Amino acid sequence: MNLDTREPTIDTIGVLETAALLRELTAGLIAVDDFDRALAELVRIARDAVPGVTWCGFTALRAGEPAGVAASDERLAELDDLRHGPDSPAMSAILRREMTSSEELDGEQRWPSWTARARRLGVRGVISAPVDVDEQVIGAINLYADAPGALTTRHQLTAMLLAEHAGLLLASVRDRARRTAEAGERDSALLGDGVVGQAIGVIMTQRGCPAPEALDVLRSAASSLDIPLREVAERLVVTVSRPREG
């Protein structure tokens, strides 16, 4: 009995390609703490790693801020930009909270203005998948093809997995950015504290280092001695202020 094993092989290849994409995406975003840079990395990786995808874009809606856009090709950035109108695959995906696709834009009627612009730019197929980041940010990742029928059901599955994984990674990016900003605010407050500021000045003079590095030295000493940072600062200031004998 002859068994046709081609389809399982194709499915296996698709699974391996998707796993490789998610690994690369994780590696690319794991240490990023700037949201816009993370979006730029996301669309670049998706474009390069998904066979059949010619371009990739991202549309982000952030509470209290203008919509954000990232595009693997700046020529196509307008297709992800809501300033050109909300009638687009990305906005449909965001509003309906489900994947939106068109394998062939030639006969597409849902987004007439957007479709006309897309076709002029060489786009023939699109998949937009909604991405939930956190309570402040939602968006859609947009996969584009330059040939009709190039985006298949496998690409839809990839887009769905990509959107879910990207949402988790982008949420981590925003969390790291928040923590970095909060740490910066705490550092500013410490630098403004009289005795801590004096201690930092002493360390800067002794080591010839900038204030952030001097603050790290002070923190390290506080951790090693297991006493509050302000107390370490006071001891240092008292020590250097004490008159030398002889």
UniProtKB/TrEMBL annotation:
Domain of life according to the entry: Bacteria
Pfam families: ANTAR, GAF_2
Domain ANTAR: 176-237
Protein name per Swiss-Prot or TrEMBL: GAF domain-containing protein
SUPFAM superfamilies reported for this sequence: GAF domain-like
One MF annotation (Gene Ontology) recorded for this entry: RNA binding
Family annotation (PROSITE patterns): ANTAR (PS50921)
Keyword entries, A-Z: Transcription, Transcription regulation
